[in-house]
Design a protein that fits this description.
Elements lengths: L1 H13 L4 H19 L4 H8 L3 H10 L14 H6 L2
């Protein structure tokens, strides 16, 4: 595994990729992989990456990985009908 990683580092350096760019590439790929392995479950992906769920969601927004689902806080039909 170390040999493969060293080869990747050499490849990135030869391509002129900066440390910041390499970090972003790795971070984005790991987030995508964790989400795919956990069928999009953000809590499970955050656990796999050992980061807080809020950190994962912030990174997802930063890398434009998935649109944030908006949860509407509408009242159920039964409760809405009883409000006057």
């Amino acid at each position: 595994m170390k040999d493969r990683f060293d080869a990747l580092v050499d490849h990135l350096l030869n391509a002129g990729i900066s440390l910041d760019q390499a970090t972003q590439i790795l971070e984005k790929s790991m987030i995508q992989g964790a989400l795919a392995r956990n069928a999009g479950n953000q809590c499970a992906a955050a656990r796999a990456l050992e980061v807080h769920r809020n950190t994962l969601q912030r990174k997802m927004a930063e890398y434009q990985l998935a649109p944030a689902r908006s949860r509407s806080r509408r009242k159920t039909v039964g409760r809405a009908a009883s409000v006057r």
